[in-house]
Design goal:
The complex is a heterodimer of chains A (58) and B (191). By secondary structure, chain A is an alpha+beta fold. Helix content of chain A is 24%, strand content 17%. The chains are: A alpha+beta (58), B mainly beta (191). Strand 1 of chain A pairs parallel with strand 8 (76-79) of chain B.
């Protein structure tokens, strides 16, 4: 499960519009072997998930 | 009528050498006429002419393509891998981090085209400057997208500024390795 899918699993009400380029959540991958990461999280009501929460999503 | 023959001609006699120019033939003649800043004893070349006309000697230009796929996770801005150079006149493009960091300040024409096959998905291509989106090249949601392309002009300071190419797809997919893809730029006008 990738980062986007994990975040959607944690917050099922999020839609694609909540994500970059226009949304308040920006996921990014710099093609450096380190994988996807949360570059910006500016959602007005939902808290940025912790690594522990993300790791807990199966 | 007299003929003057010389290998160097200094234009200007200012006490500050950088205010003077020198027109000269290189020590080993190669069919070019050089123009340099400075006095005749030690000009620094800034341009040259050959039999075809003016040749900008230090204007960076590069073009790269990719022979490996870039993996796009849905709704994740992903740096597009352009890991093979067609050319790189000033060694300003890095095929490891896919950045163009030109060594000459000025305004650069940037071109990007990429085969990112999607079916009924949003596709975005952008140029990033210093890590942030600078210009959106294309943003489409079509029934079937194959090649996408765009261009822009960007000022780069010749030392630290850099550009990269990023893409986004609304669905997880793999961008296609293809020598017809391109990420390229050249100096349109020096600062």
């Amino acid at each position: 499960m990738n980062l986007y899918e994990k975040i959607i699993a944690l917050y099922p009400n999020l839609t694609a519009d909540d994500f970059a380029p226009e949304g308040t959540i920006q996921l990014q991958n710099d093609s450096d072997g380190k994988g996807d990461y949360i570059k910006e999280w500016n959602h007005p009501t939902l808290a940025k998930p912790t690594q522990e929460q993300l790791d807990g999503v199966q | 009528m007299s003929t003057v023959k010389s290998k160097k001609l200094q234009v200007g006699t200012d006490a500050t050498s950088s205010n003077n120019f020198t027109i000269y033939q290189p020590a080993t003649p190669d069919g070019t006429l050089r123009i340099g800043v400075g006095n005749a004893d030690s000009p620094t070349e800034v341009g040259r002419f050959n039999s075809s006309g003016y040749v900008a000697t230090n204007a960076p230009a590069f073009s790269a393509y990719n022979n490996t796929n870039t993996s796009f996770t849905a709704n994740t801005l992903t740096k597009i891998i352009f890991n093979v150079e067609d050319f790189d006149t000033n060694s300003n493009y890095n095929t490891t981090n896919y950045r163009f960091t030109p060594s000459v300040a000025g305004y650069y024409q940037v071109n990007l085209s990429y085969k990112m096959e999607t079916v009924a998905n949003r596709t975005v291509l952008s140029i990033f400057k210093n890590g942030s989106e600078y210009k959106r090249m294309i943003d489409v949601q079509s029934t079937y997208t194959r090649y996408t392309s765009g261009s822009c002009l960007v000022y780069l300071n010749g030392t630290t500024d850099y550009i990269e190419a990023y893409g986004l797809s609304a669905a997880t997919l793999s961008g296609v390795a293809n020598s017809l893809n391109q990420f390229s730029a050249y100096l349109a006008r020096a600062a």
